[in-house]
Amino acid sequence: MQMRLAFSVLPLCATLACAKMEPPPGGPPDLAPPQLLATRPDSLAQMTRFSGDVEFRFDEVISEGGSPNQGTGTGALEKLVILSPTVRVPEVRWRRTRITVKPDEGWQPNRVYRVELLPGVTDLRRNRSDTGKVLTFTTGAPLPDRTLQGLVVDWSSNRPAPLALVEALLVADSLPYRGLADSTGHFSLGPLPAGDYLVKGVLDQNHDFRPGEREAFDSVRVEAKDTLVRVGELWTFVHDTATARIRTITVGDSVSATVEFNQLLDPSQRLDVKAVTLRLLPESTQVKVTSLLPKPVDDSLHARAPGAPDSTARDSTRADTTRKERPGLREIEGPAADARARAQANQPLTSRPRLSDQLVVRVSSPWRPEAKYELELQGVRNVSGVAGEAKGVLAVPRREARDTLRPRGDSLAQPKDSLKRLKKRS
After folding, report:
1. Quick one: average pLDDT of 64-88?
2. Fold exhibited by the domain 146-236
3. Are 170 and 195 in contact (CB under 8 A)?
4. CATH class of the 240-304+348-404 domain in this structure
């Protein structure tokens, strides 16, 4: 009998051990997100022999999230913590009403540590906190007082990059301090130690809080002499050491064709027609080229017909000198910020030309239907500054595309008199 009772208790214990924690039943529904009560240590504390955990204490039991924290950076709580300066994934643990953090390698002496808890902590009823917390303390180093401010821009769209990763590498000891830009691409990273920094803005596509090899970025070196350092705009793009290759060549109209590359091109480059060799196959007769321009520039110089794409595009290589000053970080994130200010902050920037992966080649005589042309370009430079040779073949269809530059017939002309035709028939 005792044996049977023991075996019946085991499944019950296993069930209780695997039970999911739920809020107690009854009572009014809890609609408030968890509130942060305190941190340990205090912000801007000097902890010479600190060896414990950094703690974020809340007013209620918080949720562990859907994925466990196993030191890989993929856990639900691990994705909410950015610890600097370290290159390893920190140890992040759930302690009912607390989140604890410490470096995988342990706290190092004479350093300034920055622990950022991002918005997103939830309680057991899935109420989500929309605020975060930055905790800065030292393990013997002088208290920091430098702040880096700037804007991260996605150059592929000329728009600010929301929630972009910002990394400030302290040049003296190669220690990386990391944070995130806000919803409008602005960032304010600090307080940090004094010194020279290599500041990098990154489009963190895999959200691991670390720059990836194929992720778009831009960097600038600054000297943190003053307490507030203006970094300026960081225009991110994918840095590629390989030369640009031609992907496709398609007929635009009777005297133009669009050359598409596998990379974005240097928008400031203007290739001379001497860098272009165009031959009619199979006899390899050379064809005269009149211009070779980036597509946005060609579109602005050669107005398209109504209904054609980019018919009103202006030259994006010219900066808009009448552009008003963009709202500052406090204006955007302050309580008085409104939808109009946020919309203005996300408008395309014009301080740099828009990137393009296309060139438009124009010839002096119309394309020959059903013919093939061999195109060879010398010195094509990608946005990273790598130049090289590119080759491709243009296959003209049986009937070339309608010449969008050819003037249309007079739409105001009077139609023929249909009564005269009826009289002739009668």
Report:
1. 90
2. Immunoglobulin-like (2.60.40)
3. yes
4. mainly beta
